[in-house]
UniProtKB/TrEMBL annotation:
Family in the record: Belongs to the DeoC/FbaB aldolase family. DeoC type 2 subfamily.
EC number, as in UniProt: 4.1.2.4
Domain of life according to the entry: Bacteria
One GO term of the biological process aspect: carbohydrate catabolic process
Enzyme class, spelled out: lyase
Annotated keywords: Lyase, Schiff base
Involved pathway(s): Carbohydrate degradation; 2-deoxy-D-ribose 1-phosphate degradation; D-glyceraldehyde 3-phosphate and acetaldehyde from 2-deoxy-alpha-D-ribose 1-phosphate: step 2/2
Pfam families xref list: DeoC
UniProt source species: Halostreptopolyspora alba
Name of the molecule in the record: Deoxyribose-phosphate aldolase
Protein backbone atom coordinates (compact mmCIF):
# COMPACT_ATOMS: atom_id res chain seq x y z
CA UNK A 1 0.00 0.00 0.00
CA UNK A 2 2.89 2.38 0.69
CA UNK A 3 4.54 1.86 -2.70
CA UNK A 4 7.75 0.08 -3.58
CA UNK A 5 10.92 0.51 -1.57
CA UNK A 6 13.42 2.81 -3.27
CA UNK A 7 17.10 1.83 -3.35
CA UNK A 8 19.36 4.71 -4.42
CA UNK A 9 22.46 2.73 -5.28
CA UNK A 10 21.89 3.68 -8.94
CA UNK A 11 21.28 7.35 -8.21
CA UNK A 12 23.06 9.74 -10.60
CA UNK A 13 26.03 11.66 -9.27
CA UNK A 14 26.43 15.44 -8.91
CA UNK A 15 27.58 15.85 -12.52
CA UNK A 16 24.60 13.97 -13.98
CA UNK A 17 22.77 15.58 -16.88
CA UNK A 18 19.17 16.63 -16.72
CA UNK A 19 18.32 13.62 -18.87
CA UNK A 20 19.98 11.29 -16.37
CA UNK A 21 18.19 12.93 -13.46
CA UNK A 22 14.89 12.72 -15.32
CA UNK A 23 15.43 9.04 -16.07
CA UNK A 24 16.29 8.29 -12.45
CA UNK A 25 13.45 10.27 -10.87
CA UNK A 26 10.80 9.08 -13.31
CA UNK A 27 12.05 5.53 -12.83
CA UNK A 28 11.29 5.54 -9.11
CA UNK A 29 8.51 3.16 -8.04
CA UNK A 30 5.15 4.86 -8.48
CA UNK A 31 3.16 5.85 -5.43
CA UNK A 32 -0.17 4.10 -5.00
CA UNK A 33 -2.13 7.28 -4.23
CA UNK A 34 -5.20 5.44 -2.96
CA UNK A 35 -3.12 3.09 -0.85
CA UNK A 36 -1.01 5.93 0.57
CA UNK A 37 -4.09 7.91 1.55
CA UNK A 38 -5.68 4.83 3.12
CA UNK A 39 -2.48 4.10 5.05
CA UNK A 40 -2.29 7.70 6.26
CA UNK A 41 -5.93 7.57 7.32
CA UNK A 42 -5.39 4.31 9.17
CA UNK A 43 -2.41 5.70 11.08
CA UNK A 44 -4.31 8.90 11.89
CA UNK A 45 -7.04 6.82 13.53
CA UNK A 46 -4.64 5.19 15.98
CA UNK A 47 -4.53 6.36 19.57
CA UNK A 48 -1.80 6.32 22.16
CA UNK A 49 -2.10 5.13 25.74
CA UNK A 50 -3.23 7.76 28.22
CA UNK A 51 -0.05 7.40 30.27
CA UNK A 52 2.04 8.11 27.16
CA UNK A 53 0.24 11.32 26.24
CA UNK A 54 2.32 13.55 28.49
CA UNK A 55 5.53 12.19 26.99
CA UNK A 56 4.17 12.70 23.48
CA UNK A 57 3.18 16.30 24.25
CA UNK A 58 6.63 17.15 25.62
CA UNK A 59 8.25 15.52 22.59
CA UNK A 60 6.02 17.50 20.24
CA UNK A 61 6.92 20.75 22.05
CA UNK A 62 10.62 19.96 21.62
CA UNK A 63 10.01 19.42 17.88
CA UNK A 64 8.24 22.72 17.22
CA UNK A 65 9.81 25.37 14.99
CA UNK A 66 7.96 28.39 16.40
CA UNK A 67 7.37 30.59 13.40
CA UNK A 68 6.52 34.13 12.44
CA UNK A 69 6.72 34.97 8.74
CA UNK A 70 4.59 38.05 8.24
CA UNK A 71 5.23 41.37 6.57
CA UNK A 72 4.37 43.08 9.85
CA UNK A 73 7.06 41.23 11.85
CA UNK A 74 9.00 43.59 14.11
CA UNK A 75 12.00 43.21 16.42
CA UNK A 76 9.67 43.36 19.40
CA UNK A 77 7.50 40.55 18.07
CA UNK A 78 10.52 38.38 17.33
CA UNK A 79 12.01 39.01 20.78
CA UNK A 80 8.72 38.11 22.46
CA UNK A 81 8.42 34.93 20.40
CA UNK A 82 12.02 34.01 21.24
CA UNK A 83 11.37 34.38 24.96
CA UNK A 84 8.38 32.09 24.61
CA UNK A 85 10.41 29.59 22.60
CA UNK A 86 12.97 29.28 25.39
CA UNK A 87 10.39 29.20 28.22
CA UNK A 88 7.01 28.25 26.74
CA UNK A 89 5.29 28.22 30.15
CA UNK A 90 7.03 30.52 32.65
CA UNK A 91 4.79 29.15 35.41
CA UNK A 92 6.10 25.62 34.85
CA UNK A 93 9.89 25.40 34.45
CA UNK A 94 9.63 21.70 33.61
CA UNK A 95 8.12 22.61 30.22
CA UNK A 96 10.76 21.93 27.56
CA UNK A 97 11.88 24.60 25.09
CA UNK A 98 11.01 24.34 21.41
CA UNK A 99 13.56 23.25 18.80
CA UNK A 100 13.94 26.56 16.98
CA UNK A 101 12.35 29.82 15.98
CA UNK A 102 11.90 30.52 12.27
CA UNK A 103 12.06 34.10 10.97
CA UNK A 104 12.93 36.13 7.89
CA UNK A 105 16.65 36.78 7.26
CA UNK A 106 16.52 40.40 8.46
CA UNK A 107 15.20 39.24 11.83
CA UNK A 108 17.82 36.53 12.43
CA UNK A 109 20.19 38.70 14.48
CA UNK A 110 17.29 39.80 16.71
CA UNK A 111 16.36 36.18 17.43
CA UNK A 112 20.01 35.17 17.95
CA UNK A 113 20.49 37.90 20.56
CA UNK A 114 17.24 36.99 22.34
CA UNK A 115 18.04 33.27 22.42
CA UNK A 116 21.74 33.40 23.26
CA UNK A 117 22.60 30.58 25.68
CA UNK A 118 19.12 29.01 25.52
CA UNK A 119 19.97 26.10 23.21
CA UNK A 120 17.06 27.03 20.92
CA UNK A 121 18.07 27.17 17.26
CA UNK A 122 17.42 30.03 14.86
CA UNK A 123 16.05 29.04 11.46
CA UNK A 124 15.57 31.45 8.61
CA UNK A 125 13.59 31.13 5.42
CA UNK A 126 15.65 32.11 2.40
CA UNK A 127 15.87 31.82 -1.40
CA UNK A 128 13.00 34.18 -2.25
CA UNK A 129 10.55 32.63 0.19
CA UNK A 130 7.76 31.67 -0.43
CA UNK A 131 7.79 31.70 -4.25
CA UNK A 132 11.37 30.59 -4.86
CA UNK A 133 11.33 32.74 -8.00
CA UNK A 134 14.52 34.77 -8.10
CA UNK A 135 17.93 34.53 -9.76
CA UNK A 136 20.30 32.12 -8.04
CA UNK A 137 22.58 35.03 -7.13
CA UNK A 138 19.74 36.64 -5.17
CA UNK A 139 18.94 33.33 -3.44
CA UNK A 140 22.54 32.88 -2.38
CA UNK A 141 22.71 36.47 -1.11
CA UNK A 142 19.53 35.84 0.89
CA UNK A 143 21.10 32.72 2.38
CA UNK A 144 24.39 34.47 3.10
CA UNK A 145 22.61 37.28 4.92
CA UNK A 146 20.82 34.80 7.18
CA UNK A 147 24.01 32.83 7.90
CA UNK A 148 25.95 36.03 8.65
CA UNK A 149 23.25 36.98 11.14
CA UNK A 150 23.80 33.72 13.01
CA UNK A 151 21.16 31.38 11.60
CA UNK A 152 21.80 27.75 12.54
CA UNK A 153 19.23 26.45 10.04
CA UNK A 154 18.21 27.57 6.54
CA UNK A 155 14.76 26.74 5.15
CA UNK A 156 14.96 27.11 1.38
CA UNK A 157 12.22 26.73 -1.22
CA UNK A 158 12.67 24.93 -4.51
CA UNK A 159 11.72 26.43 -7.85
CA UNK A 160 8.46 24.52 -8.39
CA UNK A 161 8.10 25.87 -11.91
CA UNK A 162 11.45 24.37 -12.89
CA UNK A 163 10.61 21.09 -11.19
CA UNK A 164 7.18 20.74 -12.78
CA UNK A 165 8.69 21.70 -16.14
CA UNK A 166 11.13 18.80 -15.85
CA UNK A 167 14.25 20.95 -15.33
CA UNK A 168 15.50 18.76 -12.51
CA UNK A 169 19.12 19.79 -13.09
CA UNK A 170 18.32 23.42 -12.27
CA UNK A 171 16.55 22.43 -9.05
CA UNK A 172 19.42 20.12 -8.08
CA UNK A 173 22.08 22.76 -8.75
CA UNK A 174 20.21 25.42 -6.75
CA UNK A 175 19.83 23.12 -3.74
CA UNK A 176 23.51 22.15 -3.93
CA UNK A 177 24.56 25.81 -4.19
CA UNK A 178 22.42 26.82 -1.20
CA UNK A 179 23.79 23.82 0.71
CA UNK A 180 27.31 25.19 0.15
CA UNK A 181 26.29 28.75 1.05
CA UNK A 182 24.68 27.53 4.27
CA UNK A 183 28.02 26.40 5.66
CA UNK A 184 27.55 24.76 9.06
CA UNK A 185 23.83 25.61 9.15
CA UNK A 186 21.44 22.73 8.53
CA UNK A 187 19.53 22.96 5.27
CA UNK A 188 15.81 22.26 5.15
CA UNK A 189 14.47 22.03 1.60
CA UNK A 190 10.82 23.06 1.19
CA UNK A 191 9.06 21.12 -1.58
CA UNK A 192 5.70 22.95 -1.40
CA UNK A 193 3.89 19.65 -1.81
CA UNK A 194 0.52 21.36 -2.33
CA UNK A 195 1.79 22.65 -5.69
CA UNK A 196 3.39 19.42 -6.89
CA UNK A 197 0.11 17.84 -7.93
CA UNK A 198 0.78 14.16 -7.25
CA UNK A 199 2.42 12.00 -4.62
CA UNK A 200 4.70 10.69 -7.39
CA UNK A 201 6.02 14.24 -7.72
CA UNK A 202 6.39 14.50 -3.95
CA UNK A 203 8.54 11.35 -3.99
CA UNK A 204 10.64 12.64 -6.91
CA UNK A 205 11.19 16.06 -5.35
CA UNK A 206 12.09 14.45 -2.05
CA UNK A 207 14.74 12.20 -3.61
CA UNK A 208 16.11 15.08 -5.66
CA UNK A 209 16.51 17.21 -2.52
CA UNK A 210 18.14 14.37 -0.59
CA UNK A 211 20.74 13.76 -3.29
CA UNK A 212 21.45 17.49 -3.64
CA UNK A 213 22.40 17.75 0.04
CA UNK A 214 19.27 18.42 2.12
CA UNK A 215 19.57 17.80 5.87
CA UNK A 216 15.75 17.95 6.09
CA UNK A 217 12.93 17.77 3.57
CA UNK A 218 9.98 20.00 4.41
CA UNK A 219 6.43 19.89 3.08
CA UNK A 220 5.40 23.50 2.80
CA UNK A 221 5.91 27.20 3.25
CA UNK A 222 2.59 27.49 5.06
CA UNK A 223 1.59 30.09 2.46
CA UNK A 224 -0.02 27.69 -0.05
CA UNK A 225 -3.05 25.44 0.47
CA UNK A 226 -2.96 22.59 1.11
CA UNK A 227 0.07 22.85 3.36
CA UNK A 228 1.22 19.81 5.34
CA UNK A 229 -0.82 16.65 4.75
CA UNK A 230 -0.44 13.19 6.22
CA UNK A 231 -0.18 11.43 2.81
CA UNK A 232 2.61 13.73 1.60
CA UNK A 233 4.46 13.33 4.89
CA UNK A 234 4.04 9.56 4.63
CA UNK A 235 5.78 9.57 1.22
CA UNK A 236 8.59 11.76 2.56
CA UNK A 237 9.11 9.51 5.57
CA UNK A 238 9.34 6.51 3.24
CA UNK A 239 12.01 8.32 1.24
CA UNK A 240 14.24 9.13 4.21
CA UNK A 241 13.74 5.61 5.57
CA UNK A 242 14.78 4.03 2.27
CA UNK A 243 17.72 6.41 1.89
CA UNK A 244 18.99 5.40 5.33
CA UNK A 245 18.53 1.71 4.55
CA UNK A 246 20.77 2.07 1.50
CA UNK A 247 23.36 4.63 2.64
CA UNK A 248 23.26 4.67 6.46
CA UNK A 249 22.68 8.44 6.36
CA UNK A 250 19.65 10.00 8.02
CA UNK A 251 17.71 12.96 6.64
CA UNK A 252 15.02 14.70 8.67
CA UNK A 253 11.41 15.52 7.79
CA UNK A 254 9.41 18.65 8.63
CA UNK A 255 5.68 19.02 7.97
CA UNK A 256 4.69 22.68 8.18
CA UNK A 257 1.46 24.63 7.92
CA UNK A 258 -2.01 23.74 9.16
CA UNK A 259 -0.91 21.65 12.17
CA UNK A 260 -2.80 23.39 14.95
CA UNK A 261 -3.86 20.89 17.61
CA UNK A 262 -2.27 18.37 19.94
CA UNK A 263 -4.30 15.67 18.23
CA UNK A 264 -2.79 16.70 14.88
CA UNK A 265 0.73 16.62 16.29
CA UNK A 266 0.28 13.17 17.84
CA UNK A 267 -1.01 11.83 14.53
CA UNK A 268 2.26 12.86 12.94
CA UNK A 269 4.30 11.29 15.74
CA UNK A 270 2.45 8.00 15.29
CA UNK A 271 3.20 8.13 11.56
CA UNK A 272 6.88 8.83 12.17
CA UNK A 273 7.14 5.85 14.49
CA UNK A 274 5.31 3.48 12.15
CA UNK A 275 6.92 4.53 8.86
CA UNK A 276 10.46 5.74 9.55
CA UNK A 277 11.05 4.30 13.01
CA UNK A 278 11.94 5.44 16.50
CA UNK A 279 15.24 7.04 15.44
CA UNK A 280 13.21 9.83 13.80
CA UNK A 281 11.29 10.55 17.01
CA UNK A 282 13.71 13.31 17.97
CA UNK A 283 14.03 17.02 17.14
CA UNK A 284 17.25 16.29 15.23
CA UNK A 285 15.22 14.35 12.64
CA UNK A 286 11.62 15.52 12.91
CA UNK A 287 10.23 19.03 13.25
CA UNK A 288 6.80 20.57 13.12
CA UNK A 289 6.52 24.02 11.61
CA UNK A 290 3.78 25.90 13.43
CA UNK A 291 2.68 29.23 14.81
CA UNK A 292 -0.49 28.28 16.72
CA UNK A 293 0.21 24.65 17.71
CA UNK A 294 2.36 25.45 20.73
CA UNK A 295 -0.44 27.00 22.79
CA UNK A 296 -2.67 23.97 22.30
CA UNK A 297 0.16 21.68 23.38
CA UNK A 298 0.69 23.84 26.47
CA UNK A 299 -3.02 23.81 27.31
CA UNK A 300 -3.19 20.03 27.00
CA UNK A 301 -0.05 19.69 29.10
CA UNK A 302 -1.51 21.90 31.83
CA UNK A 303 -4.75 19.90 31.78
CA UNK A 304 -2.85 16.65 32.31
CA UNK A 305 -1.07 18.18 35.30
CA UNK A 306 -4.04 19.85 36.97
CA UNK A 307 -7.12 18.12 35.57
CA UNK A 308 -8.53 21.40 34.27
CA UNK A 309 -7.84 23.62 31.28
CA UNK A 310 -6.18 26.99 31.96
CA UNK A 311 -8.00 30.09 30.81
CA UNK A 312 -7.42 31.07 27.16
CA UNK A 313 -5.30 34.10 28.17
CA UNK A 314 -2.94 32.03 30.35
CA UNK A 315 -0.43 31.77 27.48
CA UNK A 316 0.80 34.55 25.24
CA UNK A 317 -0.23 34.58 21.59
CA UNK A 318 3.16 35.79 20.27
Amino acid sequence: MEGGTVHDSAAPGPEASNAALRAYLRGLPGVDEVGARERASELAARSIKAEAKGTAIDLAIRMVDLTTLEGADSPGKVRAMSVKAARPDPADPSTPPVAAVCVYPDMVSVAVDALRGSGVGVASVATAFPSGRAPLEAKLADTGHAVAGGATEIDMVIDRGAFLGGDYRKVYEEIAAVREASGAAHLKVILETGELGTLDNVRRACWLAIHAGADFVKTSTGKVAPAATLPATLVMLQAVRDHHATTGARVGVKPAGGIRTTKDAIRYLVMVNEVAGTAWLAPALFRIGASSLLNDLLMQRARLASGTYPSPDHFTTD
